[in-house]
Amino acid sequence: MNDHQLLRYSRHILLDDLGIEGQERILAGHAVVIGAGGLGSPAALYLASAGVGRITLVDGDEVDFTNLQRQILHTQARVGMAKVASGRVALGEINPDIEVLARHERLGGEALDALIATADVVLDCCDNFSTRHAVNRACVHHRKALVSGAAIRFDGQISVYDMARDDSPCYHCLFPETEDVEEVRCAVMGVFAPLTGIIGTMQAAEALKLLAGIGESLAGRLLLLDTLEMEWRSVRFKKDPACAVCGPTPVGQAPGYLPRPAAHPAESGAVCRPDLSGRQG
Ligand SMILES: [Zn+2]
Fold it and tell me: pTM higher than 0.85 for the full model?
């Protein structure tokens, strides 16, 4: 680190658990942020301010006037601009020393796989199941840590699927992929603005901890937030031994690993509707 960086990151370096070594790891890290919307905005802003050396933003949408209520990467002047381009401007204003790559597309298949292979940590900040499952499969395949968040109405959830660890469940263990899953999206249902800030900021915190190699991640724990009552619940969950993605006949670890039906279709959960009352152990 040069003098300028020592100054910029001094309040991190002062932290005993993080220090110069942790900050060096953050600076050397590559975070892939899938979705530059409500969750991706605060997540990317904190990753950038904290000095993650390379951040790739992936989003196929343009900034819409209705996004501004919560998507704090964007401004009214940038309505109509690609979200990833708008995000790149915002991150560059906070920290011009890092590299920000903008992918203006809804990534899937080989392109997504190739990008995830280069990541040190992946943040799922998207708003649809098919992308969530595609990102999960790629993270299982390449043994990457996935920090997954969701927010709808007044309810949020966050967990970490640390696929570098043999005992960590994957996203599919908790939310098996099914054909008839209920898609609940903010565009239709509404979302409380600061909820996306709370969950997205926590995603940044988990990603920074993983990059720095400090603390205990949320792997194996799902946190559920009800902002109307302002109450958190923590649900522990284990790897599903029959998981079609990370289980013993793992589609996620073989070369041709793209979709196949879930082992337990009845146990699907809506990603944006954190109702796991039937799943608590
Ligand atoms: Zn799994």
Answer: yes
